[in-house]
Amino acid sequence: MEHFEIKKLLLISLSEGESRDVVVKGWVRTKRGNKNVAFIALNDGSTVANIQIVADLSNAVFNEDLMKTVSTGACLCVKGSLTKSMGQGQNVEVQAKEIIVYGGANPEEYPLQKKGHSLEFLREIAHLRPRTNTFGCVLRIRNAMAYALHTFYQERGFVYLHTPIITASDAEGAGEMFQVTTLDINNPPREDGAVDFSQDFFGRQANLTVSGQLEGELGALALSKIYTFGPTFRAENSNTPRHLAEFWMNEPEMAFYEIKDNMDLAEEFLKYLVKYALDNCREDLEFLCNMYDKELINRLESIVNTSFTRLTYTEAIDILKSSGQKFEYKVDWGTDLQSEHERYLVEKHFNNPVILTDYPKEIKAFYMKQNEDGKTVRAMDVLFPAIGEIIGGSQREESYEKLSQRVSELKINMHDLWWYLDTRKYGSAPHSGFGLGFERLLLFVTGMTNIRDVIPFPRYPQNAEF
Ligand code: 4AD
Ligand code: MG
């Protein structure tokens, strides 16, 4: 007998009286029925929908001892015949002939016994939450978005470049790094009082990467168009619904792209991903839409069909200042925008995604291309409804003189960045790129409101258990 994924099984159409021998395997979502018959809803994660298993209890193989172990959470192998369903809610069902319990789940103990647990509670049982409908949907959408991301770049001739996870540089210069060491932290070797990192594994201080961009630029200045996609680490102690200590970032980097080309690519890319989800994850989106956010699908559709609003940071500050809106953080030219400001622009003022450009150089990273005005840099942030910043990027400074001057102004150690500066000495070129926070994208696409609920095993302050 053939083992079918439940997703495939549910697509088979049968006429009345017709049947087909099948094997299904999965986890029990619910069991109901009476003395004569049991109805088991079985799910194997291939789809949010369950297959209904019907067990005729007058059949001696379905004795009481066996059926007691067929409880919510148990894992089963069911052999039987697929028939057209007379009941409501499904086209086909399986009339069971044999049930093998691979693993029981004691009803007294199994934490997912009932439906409708809070997302907060589910975070405490992150090892079991993939078995809920919500997380099944989120994880399948996450998978689809990763696939679509690669497809987008591959169709456009980008080379997937694997940048290192362990590095010695702080790309963003924000100093929010996790250190990597094999030294004995209780008794490190010292030289003049300071820890002697020359005796460490790499012969120097090393950390987990905060961004693959600098290495990505090395790739772009040889292969023209590259992208990275991998885990990124930030030790910022921000307990917000939009920050993780370990998140996935996608960073394309393109030689010969100026800021406008960069914006065009980012806009095309986001629309492609959202459209892919609408076209390929319909059932999961409908589930999330019904359960959590009735506007979700409308919001996704509106993104695909709109042109993003583009304006400068300076224009945005003027709008915010004359908005009459009370903000928790004051706005002034030169200060970084808080998420309340970003969301005001996107959700209230424009009611549209926004790309902001030309930020003050003081609040952006050292590598961004300096504008003629001497005050701003060619940065771009893409701001989305409900999320705020989803993408951050820029055109890069290609002039060796300007870049090394900025590096020394900011007192960044030139010695650590010699290899990066070399690209501006040898065959420098205009180039641009951006970073997409993959979980921020998933927040938008799934309608979830906490970033801890769109990654299988979230890492945040005080949490790295599962
Ligand atoms: O704006 P960021 O810091 O930009 C960079 O790292 C650049 N090197 C990107 C580039 O130009 N290649 O981060 C990029 C994006 C943000 O827009 C946000 O979506 C996401 O990464 N992000 C986070 N996501 C989750 N948790 C965090 N702690 C994040 N920090 C940034
Ligand atoms: Mg940013």
Provide structural commentary.
The structure is a single chain. The protein has two domains: 6-103, Nucleic acid-binding proteins (OB fold (Dihydrolipoamide Acetyltransferase, E2P), Beta Barrel); 129-155 and 247-453, 2-Layer Sandwich (BirA Bifunctional Protein, domain 2), CATH 3.30.930. The mean pLDDT is 96. By secondary structure, it is an alpha+beta fold. The protein contains 13 helices and 18 strands. β16 (376-384) and β17 form a beta hairpin. It has helices spanning 6-9, 64-69, 119-124, 133-155, 213-223, 259-280, 282-291, 296-304, 313-321, 339-349, 400-409, 418-425, 438-446; strands spanning 19-33, 37-43, 51-56, 75-84, 92-103, 159-160, 166-167, 179-180, 190-191, 194-195, 206-208, 225-233, 246-255, 309-312, 354-360, 376-384, 388-395, 431-437. It is elongated, with a radius of gyration of 27 Å. The strands form four sheets. The protein has an eight-stranded mixed sheet, with helices on both faces. It has a five-stranded mixed beta barrel with strand order 1-2-3-5-4. It has a three-stranded antiparallel sheet with strand order 7-11-8, with no helix packed on it. The longest helix has 23 residues, at 133-155. α4 crosses α6, α4 packs across α7 and α6 packs across α8 (296-304). Residues 171-172, 211, 213, 234, 236, 243-244, 247, 249, 251, 389-394, 433-435, 437, 439-440 line the site of 4-amino-1,4-dioxobutan-2-aminium adenosine-5'-monophosphate.
